[in-house]
Write a structure and sequence with these properties.
With 389 residues, this protein is α+β, with helices and mostly antiparallel strands. The strands form 2 sheets. Strands 1, 2, 3, 4, 5, 6, 7, 8, 11 and 12 form a 10-stranded mixed beta sheet that branches. Strands 9-10 form a two-stranded antiparallel ribbon.
Length: 389
């Protein structure tokens, strides 16, 4: 009991780490409870697992063993992050690969909604834009579920990225060779606009999304066959050279493409031509081109996520465990997005993350080595030694 109280006090003293994670902790009471299997008590509570995952991604570890070493030897990690009484290697990896997915999924969804309400929109005039793309994760040969090709193992994460607020929304994990197209409809909500590259070009999906009330801006192949019903005027001297409404996919008099007309826009940047299909008739052609250019934000996110939060340094080998790790990385990113906005009025940057890391470490060092108490100085009492004569 005394150990638990001391640990709680140390966690409360870690003010910066507490401030970073409090948006998630405020949601803990809404999550399903994490229960032990059988009569054995949990070696790691959900809060312990949450802290371990956030700390792993935040502090730039390169492996699960590196994290476990810190949980034993580093003052901050041992006193604030590690479970009460410490955690053994077998218990840690058993927990990561088998428990917490339901709770982390619920936490991620709730935190994503919370972040969307707090963060300002950078391109509100373009509507609710969601970039959609997939990213491969290098796996090991023992991960048989992560089939890719031959004797190569890869998993794939499919992500929706809120362009206006710079945060991830929905996420799905599959084997590496899985098709990306079916996930677009699952990622998008009604009224949102999916911004996608040519891998998502599919006439059936163009029809489906419109029937579902979901919008799209999707790059298409240059040689896409069009049956034009209307050509719109374009401003001379601009980047847009083509704007028309058409059915797509007609070939030799036989329609094999869209049932519903879409808008086709061609524009040119630095001598390179881009063709995009969209159902957004409310935007100017230049705005559609600008919205598609913003799709690059998800590529930047994937690169930043991999490089600075070490999301793809595996600490789990099972599909279940990798989902746990991915959700831990996404939750960490959302917490950083909220923290950087509330503390600095900025979006996430590596400079702010490094500053946060140093601040967390310095607070713990100051707590472990408090400054000596300043002693009060007293003025000496001056006695009147002059004798009366």
């Amino acid at each position: 009991m005394q150990i638990r109280i001391v640990k709680l006090l140390k966690r409360l003293n870690a003010q910066t780490y507490r401030k970073l994670t409090v948006p998630a902790r405020d949601l803990f009471h809404k999550l399903p409870s994490l229960k032990a299997r059988g009569n054995r008590p949990l070696k790691m509570t959900f809060e312990d697992e949450f802290d371990a995952l956030v700390y792993f991604h935040l502090m730039d570890f390169d492996s699960g063993r590196h994290l476990l070493q810190a949980l034993k030897e580093d003052d901050f990690a041992r006193d604030v992050i590690a479970p009460e009484g410490g955690i053994e290697k077998s218990s840690f990896f058993e927990a990561i690969n088998n428990r917490g997915l339901e709770q982390l999924t619920a936490l991620y969804e709730a935190l994503s909604v919370k972040a969307a309400k707090l963060l300002p929109k950078a391109h509100a005039e373009l509507g609710d834009l969601v970039a959609i793309d997939g990213s491969l994760i290098d796996a090991v040969l023992s991960m048989h579920w992560a089939d890719y090709t031959g004797d190569v193992r890869k998993a794939k994460v499919h992500v929706g990225f809120n362009i206006n607020q710079g945060i991830p929304t929905r996420v799905f994990l599959t084997e590496g060779k899985a098709d990306e197209k079916p996930f677009a409809s699952r990622i998008l909500d009604k009224g949102q606009t999916g911004v996608m590259d040519r891998n998502y070009q599919c006439y059936r999906d163009f029809d489906l999304w419109q029937s579902e009330g979901k919008h799209f801006i999707c790059r298409v192949k240059d040689n896409t066959i069009k049956r034009v019903s209307r050509v719109n005027d374009v401003a001379p001297g601009g980047i847009v050279f083509y704007d028309a409404v058409a059915l797509l996919g007609y070939k030799r008099g036989k329609r094999t493409g869209t049932m519903t007309e879409v808008r086709i826009i061609g524009y040119r940047i630095d001598g390179k031509e881009f063709w995009v299909a969209t159902d957004r008739h409310d935007l100017s052609a230049e705005d559609v081109a600008a919205a598609y250019k913003l799709r690059w934000n998800i590529e930047t996110f994937f690169g930043w996520w991999k490089q600075h939060l070490k999301v793809y340094h595996l600490i789990a080998r099972t599909e279940y465990g990798l989902k746990v790790q991915i959700l831990g990385g996404l939750i960490t990113y959302l917490l950083l997005a909220i923290y950087c906005h509330e503390e600095h009025g900025e979006r996430v940057s590596i400079n702010r993350v490094r500053e946060l890391r140093f601040k967390i470490k310095n607070e713990m060092a100051a707590d472990a080595n408090p400054k000596p108490r300043r002693q009060r100085r007293y003025k000496p009492i001056m006695h009147n030694r002059c004798a009366k004569t």
